[in-house]
C-alpha cells in the first residue's frame, strides 16, 4: 500500500536527551545502523509530542486530529548511496490515539502502541506521564523553560543542539516482523527550538539496567518546540537485521 504524506502542527514537543555509552547504544540497534557520536557519547532520548491538525496532506484542516505521542529514540548514522546519513532509530512509539495504532504501519509508517497519557501544562512547567497498555513502558517527565541550555556535555549551546536535531529528522522505526524498518522524515520551514530544564525524569526504558548498565545512560538536557507546522514524508523501508538483544 502506498503510504500517505501527512500534515500537522507540533503543538508541543519535548526532547529529553541522554548521553549514553556507545557500546550500550550499539547493542540496541539493528544493522546497518550505528550510534551517532557527539563528544564521544551516543545520544538518545524521549520525544513527547502533542500533534494537532493531523491529516493527509491533501485534506483541509477541518479533518485534522489531535493526539499525544511518545517515541524513544537513539541518534544513528548509516552508509547511504551518497555517503553517511544521519537520523534516529525508534525502538518504540506510543500514542493516545486508537486511530494512530490502527493506521501506523498501514496508512503511514511507524507502528504504535497504545498508552494512557497524563499531561499538566502551565507557562512555567510541563509534565507528561504515560503508561503503555501493553508491556511495562512508563515515562514521567517534568520540564520547565530556560533562557539558555545549561549543563549539557553533548552540546555547547542551544544553537548547536538545534542544528544537531534538525539534521537528524529521518526516523526509522522497529516493526513487528523484524525484517525491515519503517521510515518517516519530518520536514518544516519553521524549525525553532527553545532550551528547557529537566526538573524530574523517570523512564522504564532508560532506567532498565539490563539495557543500560549503571552509569551508561545519564540525563543531559531538554529542548522544547511549540506551534511549528510540519509535514511527515514516508521514506523507503530499510532492510534490517535485528541484534540478539533486540529480539530477546
Describe the 3D structure.
With 248 residues, the chain is mainly β. The chain has one domain: Acetoacetate decarboxylase-like (Beta Barrel), CATH 2.40.400.10. Helices cover 10% and strands 54% of the residues. The protein is built from 4 helices and 14 strands. Strands 1, 2, 3, 4, 5, 6, 7, 8, 9, 10, 11, 12, 13 and 14 form a 14-stranded mixed β-sheet that branches. A hairpin with a 2-residue loop joins strand 7 and strand 8. 35% of the residues are buried.
List the helices and strands and how they pair.
Blueprint: E1 6-20, H1 22-26, E2 34-35, E3 37-38, E4 41-56, E5 65-80, E6 83-95, H2 98-103, E7 113-122, E8 125-132, E9 138-145, H3 158-166, E10 170-173, E11 180-187, E12 194-203, E13 217-225, E14 228-239, H4 244-247
Parallel strand pairs: 6-7, 6-10
Antiparallel strand pairs: 1-4, 1-13, 1-14, 2-5, 3-4, 4-5, 5-6, 7-8, 8-9, 9-12, 10-11, 11-14, 12-13
Number of strands: 14
**Arithmetic mean pLDDT:** 93
Biggest sheet architecture: 14 strands, mixed
- Sheet-strand content, in percent, reads over 45%
Indicate the low-confidence ranges by residue numbers. Answer: 243-248
Task: Write down the CATH topology.
Answer: Acetoacetate decarboxylase-like
Radius of gyration: 17 Å
Amino acid at each position: 500500500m502506498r503510504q500517505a504524506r501527512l500534515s500537522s502542527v507540533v503543538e508541543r514537543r519535548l526532547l529529553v536527551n541522554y548521553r549514553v555509552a556507545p557500546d550500550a547504544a550499539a547493542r540496541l540497534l539493528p544493522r546497518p545502523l550505528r550510534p551517532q557520536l557527539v563528544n564521544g557519547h551516543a545520544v538518545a532520548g524521549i520525544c513527547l509530542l502533542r500533534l494537532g491538525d493531523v491529516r493527509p496532506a491533501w485534506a483541509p484542516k477541518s479533518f485534522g486530529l489531535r493526539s499525544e505521542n511518545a517515541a524513544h529514540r537513539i541518534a544513528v548514522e548509516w552508509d547511504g548511496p551518497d555517503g553517511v546519513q544521519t537520523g534516529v532509530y525508534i525502538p518504540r512509539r506510543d500514542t493516545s490515539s486508537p486511530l494512530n495504532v490502527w493506521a501506523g504501519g498501514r496508512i503511514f509508517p511507524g507502528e504504535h502502541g497504545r498508552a494512557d497519557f497524563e499531561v499538566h501544562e502551565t507557562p512555567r512547567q510541563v509534565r507528561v506521564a504515560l503508561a503503555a497498555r501493553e508491556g511495562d513502558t512508563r515515562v514521567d517527565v517534568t520540564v520547565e523553560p530556560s533562557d539558555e541550555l545549561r549543563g549539557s556535555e553533548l552540546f555547547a549551546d542551544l544553537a548547536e543542539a538545534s542544528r544537531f536535531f534538525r539534521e537528524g529528522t529521518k526516523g526509522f522505526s522497529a516493526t513487528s516482523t523484524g525484517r525491515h524498518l519503517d521510515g518517516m522524515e519530518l520536514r518544516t520551514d519553521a524549525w525553532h527550538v527553545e532550551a528547557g530544564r529537566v526538573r524530574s525524569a523517570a523512564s522504564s526504558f532508560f532506567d532498565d539496567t539490563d539495557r543500560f548498565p549503571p552509569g551508561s545512560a545519564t540525563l543531559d538536557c531538554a529542548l522544547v518546540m511549540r506551534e511549528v507546522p510540519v509535514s511527515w514524508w514516508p521514506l523507503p523501508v530499510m532492510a534490517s537485521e535485528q541484534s540478539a538483544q533486540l529480539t530477546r
